[in-house]
Amino acid sequence: MSVHLLIAEPFQEGPAATSTADALRRLGPAVQLELHHEVRVAAAALRARHADLAVLDCRLGDDLWSLLQRAGEGATPAIVIGEAGDDAFALRAFRAGAAAWVERGPALADELSIATREQLQWLRRIKAGAPPIERAESIDSLGRYSRHVIENMNSAVLVLDRDAKVSYANPTAERVLGAGSGELTRRDIRDWFPGAAPGELLPLLTLEEGTRFRGVETVLTRADGTLIPTGISCAPIVDASGVREGAVAIFQDLTEIKQLQRQVLQTEKMASIGQLAAGVAHEINNPMGFIHANLSQLTEYLDDLQKVWAHVEGLRAAAGRERLDDQEVRDAASALDASIQAVDANFLMQDFGTAIRESLEGSERIRAIVTDLRAFSHQDTAERSLCDVNRALDSTAHIVWTMMKHSVVLTKQYAELAPVVCFPMQLKQVFMNLLVNAYQAIEEQAAREELRGEIRLRTELQGDEVLITVSDNGAGIPKATLDRIFDPFFTTKEVGVGTGLGLSTSFNLIRNHGGTLRVESDPGRGTSFEVRLPLGDPDELL
Which of 26, 169, 175, 198 has the most CB atoms lying inside 10 A of its own CB? Predict the structure, then answer.
């Protein structure tokens, strides 16, 4: 029996352009393929019922839902190809009438072939005149398959009624929320967001306004008080007349992911400190050198002062006798004066004080460097706090300055700023990455031409945002790679110089703060990074 398959997907170039069609050609010569890149043409073909089965790509965007509707109107089964791990999209596709869901990935060809064969077997039974009861059984089988997918998916699923009460929870939701089987039914969604304002509860916004959310990070609270970081997606459940009957909330426990993120961040911090090690060692070695020299000199001075002190003791003994001997006192005083002249006690005392002050200054420099390093390498807490951005930027610049002070001029222009609600250690990590990159760009340019390196730091307040700018006059970034600099593990540096995680980590940290990280670069003339951070509401910390 010949079957007609319709493929609707966006136009692509390269190997990915033929992957879907190639997978379906495995089914043999009896399968006729009809490939469409234009939604309008694909919709017309579905409306005319030319196809026995439709294969629709989720990258069609909102047009996917109209094609699913057309397929349903023509009783054409539809297989949807979606992104791996997008459980919320898969559930929505099933609710919109998809017969099967296949994840895009290395096994796409095999899984698509299997899903297509299953649908074709069902079609052959229908065309062979199978009784209606068998078709109903197939539909029931599909329903059981969908339920199996939902109950075994790694994401937690809560189905809410109009009153925000749980009408269904899959086993993953029960595990994440610390409940037994069936214990979540009829629970109010507000139970896991104690103290939150109605406008902050995403499921309520979905129920009341029909707003959709996808992958928004929030925090759930278990009954035992445990806080669970989650990524939540919400979509309304709408009946045939368009009335909202409830909502479905799909969320994932991000606890392990957050821990891994903190580990990666800490590793990146230590890598940055490793790059600065030589400069820091040199910076500490200088004050340690003159502290050691001063201590050696003070040891000699102490020997001389002990000689003077011995004559002081002689004078005290002569002057303290019951029968004072004027000649003995004069001799002791003369010996003391000769000793003072011999060691040049006036200079010795003056230089003694100078050596102590220099040593104190040197030890203070070492203490400041160690304090900055300890503060920078300290692992961040899981809670936000108020941060002085100028101070955070300045302390980070002090650390990097040990590496670049002999070849770079550092210019600072700080405006008066209000404290920012943020994760201070994460902010310092961003500043460190930007400053080290700026220095390395200057070193790269200096290798080509004589260059007076300059790094400019500027902060300013713009409305309810803080703008931090780190600019340099280094090598700049080629336009061909400018769009990729925030990609993980992408680097233009030599092996052992860069991990490719610095800018990627910085971009994600700033985005998690609700801010933005932008770059402008002129190859051969320099680069400027702009960090924008919202001030935040200090009352949220109470």
Answer: 169
> pLDDT tens for residues 467-505?
999 999 988 888 877 777 776 655 655 544 444 556 777
- Provide the CATH number for the domain around residue 512: 3.30.565.10
Residue 474 and residue 428 share a domain: yes
For the chain, the domain total comes to 4
**Secondary structure (DSSP) of 240-257:** TTS-EEEEEEEEEE-HHH
Residue listed under structure tokens 């009624």: 161
CA 399 → CA 32, 271, 281, 403, distances in Å? 67, 14, 11, 8
What whole-number distance in Å separates Cα of residue 3 and Cα of residue 297? 98
pLDDT tens sequence across 286-323: 677 768 877 888 888 888 888 888 888 888 888 888 77
Instruction: Specify the pLDDT at position 307.
Output: 84
Which residue range forms the structural domain that includes residue 298?
A: 289-360
In this structure, the answer to whether residues 471 and 431 fall within a common structural domain is: yes
Q: Number of C-alpha atoms within 13 angstroms, CB side, residue 478? A: 5
Return d(Cα 233, Cα 61) in angstroms, integer.
17
Integer distance in angstroms from the first to the last C-alpha of the chain? 70
SS3 category, 185: coil
CA distance 338 to 311: 9
Residue 166, Cβ neighbours under 10 Å: how many? 22
Q: Which residues does 227 contact at the CB level (< 8 Å), separation at least 6?
A: 219, 220, 221
pTM above 0.85, yes or no: no
The pLDDT tens digits of the residues spanning 192-239 come to 888 777 667 888 888 888 888 877 878 888 878 888 888 888 888 887
Instruction: Please count the CA atoms within 13 angstroms of the CA of 422 that sit on its side-chain side.
Output: 27
Q: How far apart are CA 118 and CA 114, in angstroms?
A: 6
Residue 270 lies inside a defined structural domain of this protein: no
- Give the Cα separation of 303 and 341 in Å (integer): 15
| In a shared domain, residues 332 and 408 | no
